[in-house]
Amino acid sequence: xxxxxxxxxxxxxxxxxxxxxxxxxxxxxxxxxxxxxxxxxxxxxxxxxxxxxxxxxxxxxxxxxxxxxxxxxxxxxxxxxxxxxxxxxxxxxxxxxxxxxxxxxxxxxxxxxxxxxxxxxxxxxxxxxxxxxxxxxxxxxxxxxxxxxxxxxxxxxxxxxxxxxxxxxxxxxxxxxxxxxxxxxxxxxxxxxxxxxxxxxxxxxxxxxxxxxxxxxxxxxxxxxxxxxxxxxxxxxxxxxxxxxxxxxxxxxxxxxxxxxxxxxxxxxxxxxxxxxxxxxxxxxxxxxxxxxxxxxxxxxxxxxxxxxxxxxxxxxxxxxxxxxxxxxxx
Amino acid sequence: xxxxxxxxxxxxxxxxxxxxxxxxxxxxxxxxxxxxxxxxxxxxxxxxxxxxxxxxxxxxxxxxxxxxxxxxxxxxxxxxxxxxxxxxxxxxxxxxxxxxxxxxxxxxxxxxxxxxxxxxxxxxxxxxxxxxxxxxxxxxxxxxxxxxxxxxxxxxxxxxxxxxxxxxxxxxxxxxxxxxxxxxxxxxxxxxxxxxxxxxxxxxxxxxxxxxxxxxxxxxxxxxxxxxxxxxxxxxxxxxxxxxxxxxxxxxxxxxxxxxxxxxxxxxxxxxxxxxxxxxxxxxxxxxxxxxxxxxxxxxxxxxxxxxxxxxxxxxxxxxxxxxxxxxxxx
Lengths: 331, 331
Fold this sequence. Notes:
homodimer, Rossmann fold, 3 domains, 6-stranded mixed β-sheet, 42% helix, 17% strand
């Protein structure tokens, strides 16, 4: 896919400009008229021109490492994201290193600082407790950054899920099996951007005439232990739920552990729905019904955005990746 | 655990030597008499003295990153190893970055080179296709390296499993259920050090009067796909096996996929035994019987060896971690 034979001179020829102009478009070091920039960018795209990153890093002193910073390295969703990212970037001589923050803001900040300090080639990150201002040092340092998250962090490249259709389909499915009291085991209150998956579910549930009362929303970390604790808390309510949505699949597996322990039948007594489609979702019994966020597509999109940045794109871009409802046996 | 209040002067006082001598023991920059070294090392251990790595890295220009280099980032065994390593090293201001090589030797070599080039604080690695000479540049550069593997790579710190007792128990279990024809889905022939798990199994099987004939050994990568292909190949033999050992749990899950597809009942028709006890081993149905290699203990041992190296230990050390037979439902 990456054709290193195409040179800057080829691009210049195709665009009818000088090589210097192509270089200015790529580096942003001097202003280029918008029309000229558009012509050059079209030529770049047409020729699949990619800057030889290794050669560039030798010139600029940047390393060939790209940091993928995630809250939970043991969540297979991120492992698959890492694998795809690595595949996409290998041809450019870049290596992906995965950094787990344990969902701690101090770790998240320390790793961002380290990426700048070590002159990494780029950063792809799923923030958990970071705030918008935490990205300022990276932007100031000219570090290419791609965020993969449910919410925006300002003018930074973003890959984000569109889960409206998938969540609607999940609710249709829950509603046809006559469930009325839905619950959610959500992430912690202080996670960045709140919990869009919860807001989303609440808004749609109303349209389906189902309730998502406050006493049926429990919160915790994105861990198996928190999933078990959350499910236990929900089942001890005076009117327990008959359908439980989980913030991610790791939480859902914890909920299954607790259901088994309590003798609660899934899906007989309670329907269970995850988020992400982590690899084990199809391995557990009953097999987990989930709202799938395609890790491979997220990885490809993030790689693409990063490559464009390395090639000099300045304006931030957002890519929406469609989530998908995957019906298995837990509803 | 890491008490930074203890200074080199405290160690010197406790050992009855000068601070300079403590420093020589730590850095290895000048020879120290063996008896003196022993007294100083005892004092270091007693006082839980740990060099302040962050302060040292500022002096030496080393980064605060430790690379964990593994063949398969999606294997939860390595994710748990990474998490434990990070926990153990956090107090020293070190950050673990995980690098997946996809079991490719070129990637393995490139990442080692990058670790030297970037002046990483240390490397923990499970090599897959590397050879002993590939480590020479790291040793020459004075890079602290810990290898986690079944086999030794020369005079380098090693964390290695002792699976003799656990494999014997697995074979006892298989033999009491009247299985006689055992098979193995092993790793690729060109993996470094061959496949000690296979050699091991073969030697022990003979003691149990069971055969492990050549036609019942199939080889492939450590992937789910290779596990499925290997299981399919074994079932198409004229005399198929009644017990199948797998090189790791990822392979075993692939074998389960194929068994399901072929209508082969596990454990009714064929017993299945994994290696590692990756997190999903207890999630699949039937739950996977496996030879557990405790990732958390491996992580703790690797961290300990690395810290000792950072504190100046020169002589290589090997730590044996006991594997354990975990009987679940697939035998």
